[in-house]
Every structure is written in structure tokens, then in C-alpha cells.
Amino acid sequence: METGFIIETIVKAVVVLAVFSALAGFTTYIERKVLAFMQRRLGPMHVGPHGVLQLAADGIKLFTKEDFIPQNAAKPVFMIAPIITAATAFIAMTAVPFFPEFELFGYTVRPIISDVNVGILFVMGVASIGLYGPLLGGMSSANKWSLLGGARTAIQLLSYEVVSGLALLAPLMIVGSLSLIDINDAQAGGLGDWFVWTQPLAFILFVIAGFAETNRTPFDLLEHEAEIVAGYATEYSGLRWGMFFIGEYANLFTICFLISLVFLGGYNDLWFIPGGLAIILKVMFLIFFFLWTRASWPHIRPDQLMWLCWKILMPLAVINILITGFVMMF
């Protein structure tokens, strides 16, 4: 039994790593096509039909590009930083239940690598550690633009973490558990049981914090091309540069799964739609929403992010917790 559990866990880990690495790369193509459509452009068109093989071309370019390390950089830190970003993005996925249980050749498969009883705390904690990658990369690059990008990482981390934690506290008070499976099961009654209806403010706050956590527009302060060239990634090239962005897109999937599980009914059946397909549709819509926002909203300044998080969003999250507590008491 122990050997079977170990083999099953290894297989799940390999599948998650392979699938989401491929999806992270494919999402870059989808993003370029969606942004092009919204801006009346064509996007990638030359490699394969409608540019669908652009992903393969980009992969070949990253594998063959020179791995350049600046002369005055702190080389060990410079080399480790991309690994931190990519590794933490996939480690955070270990406590996420992606689908409901299903049978395969008579064997019951649970699509979660490790069902820890503090799953959501583990996911948020590990995902936030991922921002140390850009921070260390920017600080170790011996480049002023990279250093500015790294400094903005610290600002962003201090700003959104408080909001995301407080936003999740209200629905967790209702469920009484930190397990993502328990949170999903609490919404098993159908569309009316989704927490987005009872906790709309928490939902909005967590989505906004999700934009900051995944370094997406309008909170892409770390690599603001118009101000700091490419920020923390200015001196990176080849596979090290690619690891940063694989981690970023993997985090995007993690956040979309969290939003779906906590607020949008998770992988429970939705009318005639089976639960596995339902959560895929929710995650696809949320990713499209993230891309849509990038095409529609301008960047903001670091001071505007701090002002928004500390003076607006955090007080709203605290008020929401107090209201939830009073409602539960009476």
C-alpha cells in the first residue's frame, strides 16, 4: 500500500509538472492572439497555420540562446533566482484539487497530489515565496533597472499579501476549514451555494490581489517596460528568462483554480455539466478575464498600488470580516 501511494504521488507530480509547463507555454500564444484580436492586430501568423507553431519556435530560441551572466553579478544568486520562481509555482499546486475523483481501470484517482488540512494556507504561502525569485534576480544583476524591479517586488509583496489573506478569511470562517476539498464541498448544493453570492466583496478583493500576485497588468510593476526596460529580468536570457515566465503563467493557473474552488463552486456539477468540465470552463474564463484586463487597463505606479491596498482594500477586507462575524453570531 505504501509503495502504491508513493508511485501514485510521483505519477501525479510528473503529470502536473508536464501538463502545466505545456499550458504555461501555450498560454503565451493564446495571450498574444487575444491581445491582438482586441487591438485589431493579427498577432503571431508566420510559424504554422495562424501562428500556432510559434510556441515551438520560441522554445527552440530559448533553448539555443546564449546563457548570459553579467560580469559583476552575484552569480550564485543570479542563477538560483529563476529556479525559485518556477519551483514554488509548481510546489504550490501540490495542495490544489484540480478535478473530482474519478475511476481509471477500476482504480479511484484523486486529482490532488497532497490533501493537507491547511491546503489554502500552504498554497498561498508557497506562491508568495515565488516573488523572492524576481527580488533576488533584480538585486543580483548589477543593473540599476533590475534593482528597481527587485525593489518594486518588495513593495508589491507587502501590499497584496495582506489583502489576499484578509479576503480569504471571511469565506474560511463560514466553512471552518482550510482544506480546499472542504471548501469545495461546502458549495456542493448548486449555483446558489457559491460563496461569490454570500461573499461578493471578498471575491472582488481576492481577484484584485490575484492580479498583483501573478504580476499581471495593471500591477505588473516588476517589469514595467515603459519605465524600467524589463525590470528584474533585464539581464536574463535563454532558459533562465523562460523559467521566470513559466513560473508566472503557472501561478496564473493556480490563482484561477483557487478563485474557482473558493468562490465559484469548484469542481461540483453545474446543472448538466459534469464537475471536471465545469471547473475547466471556470478557469478558462478567468484566464481570459486576466488577458482581457491586460488589453484594457493601463499600468499603475508603485505608490498607487500601496495606496490602493493599504488605504482602500485592506479596510474593506477588515469590514467584511467583521460583518461576516456578526452575521454568523446572530
User: How many domains in all?
Assistant: 1
Largest sheet: 2 strands, antiparallel
The CA-CA distance between the termini, in Å, is 48 Å
Cα-atom radius of gyration: 20 Å
Q: Helical stretch count?
A: 13
Spell out the helices and strands N to C. HHHEEHHHHHHHHHH
Shape: globular
Task: Quote the average pLDDT.
Answer: 87
Low-pLDDT sequence parts: none
Helix content: 55-70%
Structural class: mainly alpha
**How much strand?**
under 5%
Number of beta strands: 2
Strand order of the largest sheet: 1-2
Quick recap:
This protein is mostly helical and 330 residues long. The protein is built from 13 helices and two strands. Helix 3 (75-91) packs parallel to helix 11 (238-263) and helix 6 runs parallel beside helix 13 (302-329).
Task: Please describe what this structure looks like.
With 330 residues, the chain is an all-alpha fold. 67% of the residues lie in helices and 2% in strands. It has helices spanning 2-38, 54-64, 75-91, 119-129, 132-140, 144-175, 180-185, 195-198, 200-213, 225-228, 238-263, 275-296, 302-329, and strands at 102-104, 107-109. It starts with a helix and ends with a helix. The model has no long low-confidence stretch (mean pLDDT 87).
Key attributes of the depicted protein:
330 residues, two-stranded antiparallel ribbon, NADH-quinone oxidoreductase subunit H, quinone binding, ubiquinone
